[in-house]
Amino acid sequence: MSGQITTINPATEETLETYTLMTNDQMRDAVRACHEAFLDWRLQPVENRASIIRAIGQELQNSKEEFAQLMTREVGKLIGDSRDEIDLCAQICNFTAENGPKALADEERDIPGGTGVVHYAPLGVIYGIQPWNFPCYQAVRYAIANLMAGNGVLLKHAENCTGSGLFLRDLMERAGLPRNLFTVLLIDHDQSDLVIEDDLVRGVTLTGSDKAGRTVSKKAAEQLKKTVLELGSNDAYIVLDDADIDAAVKACVAARIYNNGQTCVNGKRFIVTARNYDAFVERYAERMGAIEMGDPTEDATRLGPMARDDLRDKLAAQVEESVEKGARVVVGGKVPDRKGAYYPATVLVDVKPGQPAYDDELFGPVASIIRAEDDEDAMRIANDSRYGLGGGIFSRDEDRARKLAAERFDTGMISLNGFNIAIPNMPFGGVKNSGYGREHGGFGMKEFVNAKSIYVMDKKADA
């Protein structure tokens, strides 16, 4: 074990900061301190918790530019996307503060001979393992819901955005969150297993790959601890016979390159019926080919670097393997000769099963266009995946598209005639190898609570 974490700017390759990993004793002390903070926090009225969460949202806005610049330095996000991420996190705080007290209020039900009360009690310390692609949002998404529920929160953030995790901790405490209630653990993977095993940790949530999900859920299951998993996907966006092609092309380009192509719910497979295939490929390739790579700190830049060199190299290898197995590059497809973890906007066609571009998640600005015979075949191909996080349908017949989304599309979130990533009042999560459990929309507040049944029996009159 090196004992240190070093963060590097993926656009300039410059070293940003070096952090010292915790010892095992320091890690255990941090978990214990979080638990101690939870013991007080759980007794706070939900309205008091909501007030502090609302203050966190305001402090996010107050600190937006500083936080956004830090995220862009650490992971190469476009500065505009970083600012938008902070705005989304503030909206999550506001939604949670507004709706949390009602969602977590006691419910009374009629029972024979008395009244039943359903009380949502916090479980305790919840451990979150989060990735780098949204340094603020990934942590806020689970942390704010669990803080509202009365839990304590631990965060093991991705190493390359360690500074963002610590910035968020300090920001929350400036807003009035009790010290240690949101604790950032600077630990390695072996130490992470010890955290899961700790008796004071009552639940585990992870956002990451399906491989990481299997590893973490197995470790948690050995301890009989609940998990919520939000894993990867190769989301399908379906262009049906009656689609508005120009609108579909525009939305599908945005769906692929948003956040430099590094989003779990980005569009990745674009399934187009034979009637529209040639026109879609031509117009889509033209738009993607016009996207130039640039400095992510510049407002005009449309595509920045990937977050690390190794992630860029993995993506390049997936493209090369897909081409070796029959795919064809229409635009992009070559690692540029320049400093930084850059990869160009890329379009692949002739994409078939057995290629990474069809079967796997390409986590970067690479689009896989797949030809379908007709609408029915397009739905079949969309569901021909081990994943099921997001997706989209383009059709002028909104009622039909809505029916297909509800009844036929085996995935967690579906955009009709557009592209969305996350909205605070709508549930977020997937099916199949994309994980289980839901966040946002009030659902996350009840993932790690004890729904207690309290039976209040009527007093019998004295004889």
From TrEMBL:
<keyword id="KW-0521">NADP</keyword>
<feature type="domain" description="Aldehyde dehydrogenase">
    <location>
        <begin position="4"/>
        <end position="454"/>
    </location>
</feature>
<comment type="similarity">
    <text>Belongs to the aldehyde dehydrogenase family.</text>
</comment>
<dbReference type="Pfam" id="PF00171">
    <property type="entry name" value="Aldedh"/>
</dbReference>
<dbReference type="InterPro" id="IPR016163">
    <property type="entry name" value="Ald_DH_C"/>
</dbReference>
<protein>
    <submittedName>
        <fullName>NAD-dependent succinate-semialdehyde dehydrogenase</fullName>
    </submittedName>
</protein>
<dbReference type="InterPro" id="IPR015590">
    <property type="entry name" value="Aldehyde_DH_dom"/>
</dbReference>
<dbReference type="InterPro" id="IPR044148">
    <property type="entry name" value="ALDH_GabD1-like"/>
</dbReference>
<dbReference type="InterPro" id="IPR016161">
    <property type="entry name" value="Ald_DH/histidinol_DH"/>
</dbReference>
<dbReference type="InterPro" id="IPR047110">
    <property type="entry name" value="GABD/Sad-like"/>
</dbReference>
<dbReference type="InterPro" id="IPR016162">
    <property type="entry name" value="Ald_DH_N"/>
</dbReference>
<keyword id="KW-0560">Oxidoreductase</keyword>
